[in-house]
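Researcher: Please translate sequence to structure tokens.
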Amino acid sequence: MRPLAQMRQDARAIFDAGLAAADPYRAIERHASIHNDTLFVAPSPDSSLAPATGEMKTRAQRVYDLNNYQRVLIVGAGKASARMAQALEDLLGNRVAAGVVNVKYGHAVPLRAVKVNEAGHPLPDEAGHRGAREIIELAQHAGERDVIFCVISGGGSALLPCPADGITLGDKQQTTQVLLDCGATIQEINAIRKHISKVKGGRLARLAFPATVIALILSDVIGDSVDSIASGPTAPDSTTFADCFRLVRRYGIEERIPPAVLQFLRRGTNGLVEDTPKPGDPVFQNVQNVIVGSNRLALAAAQRKAEELGYKSVLLSSYIEGETRTVAALHGAIAKEVVATGNPIPRPACVISGGETTVTIRGSGLGGRNQEFVLAASNEIAGLQNVVILSGGTDGSDGPTDAAGALADGTTLARAKELGLDANVFLDNNDSYHFFQRLGDLLITGPTFTNVMDLHVVLVS
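Model: Translation complete:
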């Protein structure tokens, strides 16, 4: 029987292994290389890491003769974009003529030729707006003998704000907050953000045409769909204005989003505003979109670490989504099943999953989906011996907090009760941060400069 303290350390080590696999600098190194002025860019893998070897299964590389280009530019947005641009600068050297990337506050790294703008996330701000305009300026003035590297990662939607004509940044901020609060999925949020933007939903590719665009993308969405990651600035958009208007009605937020946004979506639905570029549009003929990192790669690395530590492991899914409390209860139920019957895997067991759940805000507390996940799961595992649950965001910031997530075990509720804390009161108020802060069980990583959604770890000894 493993001591509980050791299990808690193991859970953190497993999470950290997944985090290391999502390092954006290494992700660029795995996919781009140069030999004798020839650039080789490996495409997105056909599948996730092979379980036994960790090697990627890829199709043929795309080859670019850098002597054919007058300028090399780097643009991008996202929590990992500065670190990705750093890898490209180190690879391309003095070939890089200029660039602009927007990152979340606190996520900047020193670069030589590329300007780094720190900006607001998850709500866009004026700093992000200025940076987006600078990116648009570079793209618009690129010619057919220019190559633009576009580095995109999680957070890119909020960090690349340039509202459509007639919509203000304040309108977009309010719309984003309403969508975050109503329980919409990230795909649904991004569908609307694309259509009220000048740059998202493939519009950056349209602005850059006929330049060559190589988009290197760190995925933070379930299924790794390039048109959803950072709202797909270089990818064909599969959603329409009509889809957006249906989402507004489904969540009953017609009265909560700004009138200018509602009117713009209505005009688009009626064909009075040009829709985002769709598959087959000529603006994508010089575009290569490459997924360089994903939740699946991080989960595979976490699973290997669990097995190194002596746990029998199962990778449940990288497609975990839905209401956070419901998903957390399911993971708690799995822990109880392992204790009772040894299913779906015998002890010592490690169950790993990933994805991105959704919190419907009902209270006025502080927290994020990972902290709420662990708080909800605490009810399920209360009193169980040698059970540990950890949930963390790979970007290091869970909701509007300085924590990546939290960690709990079968003693969590008893320890909380000794401090006069009622877990259900904190849960009802969406105040998971202050609950785990009092217990000393917040998962603190600091900025990780990456983002491939969330990792959930369940250990049973």
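Researcher: Any highlights?
Model: DSSP finds 16 helices and 15 strands in the chain.
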